[in-house]
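Q: Please design a sequence for this.
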């Protein structure tokens, strides 16, 4: 990955991203001055604009460098939806001060069904309860969309795949690798490969020389999906990669930004646009 060119054209898009990064310090630290306590989704959304809801779940095992459902929360979704608004005409939900809204939701909450897209990180530590299984299945089959990210290696994959199989049985809803010519990867940018993005602490620790957090057990990044009977993607999985860190940490280190954020945003915005239009 090091030194590789981004998988989409630079020009005006790259300039916009670079300008966004230049402003990220001020914006990011403004958010950091507030509380990091979970902001649960209200009974009624404040507007009809796009918002990402973070899934709060129970961890049943521990992954290195993971902190359960709070991994990458909340600046990954704050920054991603902010850049989505800057690079497209999508209207995003904002609070009374004009800041990007973001919410946390439990799968058993009725507010789940007000969330157009839900995001979960570190899902190799996740364990669903029986009520969560039923609610998530209903949400997905009714048109909901789940993106899971930042889980690495064989054990994490086994844990996640076993849990999601309880929600969507693989005999009827198999997990598939998303081909590189899939329309999802052409929503706005031409994504030529799935980027392997490491968390910034790991990246600093290895001097940017490798991106595989589990060595040979996570050498390749994957984009996988579960689709309904009509071919609509219900669940998207970015495995052996931490795409959300390229959004969350966009303003913390120029080297990290240049190496990861353009590709991370290209994939992120493509997936969001696809989810909103299918």
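A: Design:
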């Amino acid at each position: 990955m090091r030194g590789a060119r981004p998988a989409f054209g630079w020009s005006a898009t790259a300039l916009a991203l670079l300008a966004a990064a230049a402003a990220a310090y001020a914006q990011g630290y403004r958010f950091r001055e507030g509380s990091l306590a979970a902001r649960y989704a209200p009974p009624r959304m404040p507007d009809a604009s796009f918002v990402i809801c973070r899934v709060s779940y129970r961890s049943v095992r521990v992954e290195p460098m993971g902190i359960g459902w709070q991994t990458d929360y909340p600046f990954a979704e704050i920054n991603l939806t902010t850049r989505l608004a800057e690079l497209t005409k999508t209207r995003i939900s904002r609070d009374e001060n004009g800041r990007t809204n973001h919410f946390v939701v439990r799968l058993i909450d009725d507010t789940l069904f007000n969330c157009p897209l839900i995001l979960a990180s570190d899902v190799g530590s996740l364990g669903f309860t029986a009520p969560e299984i039923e609610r998530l299945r209903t949400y997905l089959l009714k048109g909901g969309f789940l993106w899971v990210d930042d889980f690495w290696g064989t054990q994490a994959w086994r844990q996640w795949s076993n849990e999601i199989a309880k929600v969507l049985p693989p005999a009827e809803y198999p997990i598939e690798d998303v081909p590189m010519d899939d329309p999802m990867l052409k929503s706005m940018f031409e994504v030529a490969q799935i980027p392997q993005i490491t968390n910034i602490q790991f990246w600093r620790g290895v001097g940017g020389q490798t991106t595989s957090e589990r060595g040979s057990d996570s050498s390749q990044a994957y984009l996988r999906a579960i689709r309904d009977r009509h071919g609509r993607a219900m669940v998207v999985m970015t495995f052996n990669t931490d795409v959300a860190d390229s959004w969350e940490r966009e303003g913390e280190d120029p080297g990290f930004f240049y190496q990861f954020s353009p590709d991370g945003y290209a994939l992120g915005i493509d997936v969001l646009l696809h989810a909103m239009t299918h």
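Q: Thanks. Anything notable?
A: DSSP finds seven helices and seven strands in the chain. Confidence is low (pLDDT under 50) at residues 1-12, 21-35.
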